[in-house]
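Work Package 3 (structural annotation) set out to generate three-dimensional models for the target panel prioritized at the project kickoff. During this period the team completed the workflow that converts sequence records into discrete structure tokens, so that structures can be stored uniformly alongside our sequence database. As a representative example, we reproduce one entry of 292 residues exactly as it appears in the project archive.
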Amino acid sequence: MEVKGIIAAMVTPFDENQKINEAATKQLIEKLIKDGVSGIFILGTNGEFHVLTEEEKVSFAKIVIDTVNKRVPVYVGAGGNSTSEVIALSQKMEKLGADALSMITPHFVPLTQAELVAHYKAVAASVKTPIILYNIPKMTGNNIEIETVRELAKVSNIIGIKDSSGKLENIEGYIEAAKGQDFVVLSGSDSLILKALKIGATGAIAATANLITALDVSIYENYVNGDLEAAQKAQDDIEELRAVLKLGTIPSVLKKSVELTGIPVGPARFPVAALEDEAVGKIKEMLSYYKL
């Protein structure tokens, strides 16, 4: 499995009762694959992993893995706070056929880097499935330091990291630290896709790809084909969407945007509230910009 290109950080569709919507899930998957994503990443931040039960996570992962049916790799979020619980969930996702496991750092309690290393090594030893580390310190309070990546990149089935710190120097440091290892670095910040590619990242895990899939994919494809001007234009063009994402709590704006294009992904799960009419109006203006 090559970990590269634009991997969509997919939202989790819900119905009006805030239960998983299987039909909408399948509809969104077909749109993402048709528009050229290189993979589908589920149960991340925009996938609302933090408000889903373990049973729901396993059920949703099965729907996605079965629907994708090996057309692109499926990256499944299996991170959490307790090492033993993460091991148990990772093993369940492995049995379902996940192509890779995404592993967010434990959160809420500040951990030492030695504790993070021990956590990840214990999980990696419990499964054969490749693991992608997930660094998003703004949300978790725990940053994966460059020296920690240097150590973890030596573990055979820890094959990469998604960095959502928003700091290009972090991505650059990870790339340097893992040099010589079979280890990739992915941008988790949609604003940095092209800059990350230019310094050696192999791709991005992008939430904006739920909506403007083909545009995000064109950043990568134009870069690979050497058309840096077109890649930069596409990178700049995603700012229309990013500008409205701040109008509500994650992932309410993104889900409303996708829903207004005809895929009924539903609202974010409570306690995230429905959007005000003014925000919805600005979303519609954004959709008009993209002719969606």
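The first helix runs from residue 22 to 34.
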